[in-house]
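agent> call fold_tool(seq_1)
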Amino acid sequence: MQTKKDKRKNAEVSIIGTLPKERIAKETEKTLAQIQKEIAIAGFRKGHVPMEKVREYVGEKALWKESAESALKAEVENILKEHAVLPILPVSASLSSGDPESDIPFEIVAVVAPSCEIEGYKETAKFAIAAVPPLDETKEQELARTALRNQARAMTKSDLPADLPVRSQTQAGALAQAGGTGELTDEEAKKLGFENSKAVEYFLSEEAERAVKEREVQKKRGAIAEALIAKANCDIPHVIVHEEASHLLEATKKDIASQGLPFNDYLKRAGKTEQEIHTELESPAEKRVALDLIFAEIARTEKIEAAAEEETRLVETLIKQGVPEDRARPYIRATLMREKVWELLGAKAESKV
């Protein structure tokens, strides 16, 4: 039996061929025996209808078609092995219409694992970074200091305890929304847990510098990601893109809910249906999946591995926070590997220490 394999988009593989009439005829007796067990004809007990009556009852054309379907089903696994096709979803196998006692063309369609091929990723990243407009660090840091200072001032006017320290990265990141001008006074600084105005200003300057550097890193990463995706040859099943878009939709719903807005009201304001939002999210979803695959390919090519000690330390931290190890370890490993790839590509994260 001759077969031919063709690759399609969305990680689909098509295998076409012709099922020989001899193979179908060989399956006919099995098909008849199976039908005999299931049918009941007047004058005969179920399972005891004579074969000639079964054949007459079913009809030659229907019997040939059912036998062909059974024969193809029995051959699918061998055909897939012959072409080294490993499906990730149930395959679809279809027969063309044909006359009894004739060969019948068929097609098997399988969805295989996603893949991304990319070459010259280091040069691609280098060119992408070079194209990123440089930040005016002095101006950006001053804007960041002002934003942090304004939020800090707003916190001093709240009902926070006077001795509450504002020395964590999480708290510092929250100091970015309120209005106001001028440096904080010693009294305001003490309400935030600092010794005096000079101490809080020093802290805010450090955080502003960190924020600007982080922003610069994120701009580089965004440019690199777009360049890599554009250069890579990716083949991704639509079902995976659809699933990722569903995750993004759920994240969107949670974000909207956190703002106190019912999702149905959001849809009305946007003038869109949930399905339309889902469809719009498929493009960023495909990019996310593609970038994950690209990074995995780079890590494989460069033989990048996560540091065992660092991985264990971070996994133990998540476990203490209630995350099961079977979820914590893959997440930490993927995160560490991704950061190593970013570093290789020239976009290392700023240290938070």
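agent> call fold_tool(seq_2)
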Amino acid sequence: MTTTMLDYTKIILQKVSFDSRLFTRELKKAISRLLPNEVEELRCWLQQFTTDKPELQTTLIFLKT
């Protein structure tokens, strides 16, 4: 079973979600490496993932641009 870059990104973001600065840094790296359609999928996933994590909701701004 192969893991796509998007799936790998989600795993990494879940693992670093304890630290908002680290989460932001990994999110920025992911945005620069993923394809545009993958970034859109990541945006949808991130909106759900951060629903109960108010400290991470500010990172959604990086996906608005």
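agent> summarizing second result for user.
Residues 20-33 form the longest helix (14 residues). Helices lie at 5-15, 20-33, 36-49.
agent> awaiting next instruction.
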